Amino acid sequence: MLKKMLAIVALSSLGVSAYAVDASQVQKSIELKDGSTVYIFKDGKMGMEDKYGRATYMESGHAMETKDGKKIIMNGNEIWRLDELLHKDHRG
User: Fold this and answer.
1) What is the CATH number of the domain that holds 66?
2) For residue 71, which of 28, 42, 38, 24 has the smallest C-alpha distance?
3) Which residue has the higher pLDDT, 47 or 19?
4) Higher pLDDT, 21 or 46
5) For residue range 23-37, what is the model confidence (pLDDT) as tens digits?
6) Does residue 81 belong to any structural domain of this protein?
7) Is 4 a domain residue?
């Protein structure tokens, strides 16, 4: 019984560390015409921050216009990753 409990605790701690997000995972950020920002992670997935600083939903495949007039296509929708990044110092 003790061995099973230790195994569960060990596996749980591995799962939690796999979801840790830090700024080094962001390859670059791009400002959009509407005031929001798209973050591109090193794996090519993207997350979107609205003009109020909140991680927000954007459908994968949606075309967006950057401040300088270029068009980019949303790849993925990494709300959870971006939310963790934006609020990493605000949660206990």
Assistant:
1) 2.40.10.300
2) 38
3) 47
4) 46
5) 788 999 999 999 999
6) yes
7) no
pLDDT tens, residue by residue, 40-62: 999 999 999 999 999 999 999 99
The first and second tokens of residue 89, run together, are 């110092």
CA distance 36 to 7: 44
How far is CA 15 from its chain centroid?
17
Q: CA angle, 31 as apex, 30 and 33 as ends, to 5°?
A: 135
Instruction: Determine whether 34 is exposed, middle or buried from the number of CB atoms within 10 Å of its CB (0-12, 13-18, 19+).
Output: exposed
Q: Specify the pTM.
A: 0.72
DSSP state of 74: -
Number of domains observed in the structure of the chain: 1
18 within domain boundaries: no
Range of the domain at 82: 23-86
Q: Is residue 7 part of a domain?
A: no
E strands along the chain, which residues?
A: 26-31, 37-41, 46-49, 55-56, 63-65, 71-73
